[in-house]
Amino acid sequence: MGKVVSDKNFPCHFGTIAEKKGDLRYFYIENHDLSPLPNVLREFLKLSRENEHNKHALVVFVQPEIPEQSFDYYENYFWNILKYLHENDEKEWNANIPTDPDDPLWEFCFDGEPIFVSANMPAYKHRITRNMGKSLILIFQPRRIFADITPKAIDLIRSKVESIENLPIHPDLGRYGDESNREWKQYIITDDNNPRKGVCPFHPKS
């Protein structure tokens, strides 16, 4: 992962900088055991809050499946991990973040912190920038680290992705807070250029 992110052709230079500065943290899920993950994420968020000027990210690798599984399998696994974290969250949902994923201001929350979570997986055959090898990978980024990233910088990253994949920018990639944007659709985009249909698989506990 570090080698991939450090490559000069990696589209997100913020990720490259974070790797070089040592701001990326890594964790491995083995034998489908999710039980350590809630505490790992809590400790990561504590570290991130104590170093608020750093763009920390937690990169979670799931033990590779043999044989490789389908897109739907990895997608369900991803959402089940978020559901597990939510069920084992010791804090209330952030009061400033809507609980309805269909709200443009929604974001996944844990330990009181809004977090953007993106998935990489081997089932991506066309959206190759989201395929980093044999593992399902979840990248947890506190929403606050994006506060000083300009729209121009985001457009540049997406332009690089477009060039690498030789595909148009995915229609579900929007800007947080825009009326048409749904964050959950960006967590796992489709492998083609079709917008995602249906409702979010994640539902906060009542």
UniProtKB/TrEMBL annotation:
Q: Which Pfam families match?
A: YqcI_YcgG (PF08892)
Q: Which domain of life is it from?
A: Bacteria
Q: What is this protein called?
A: YqcI/YcgG family protein
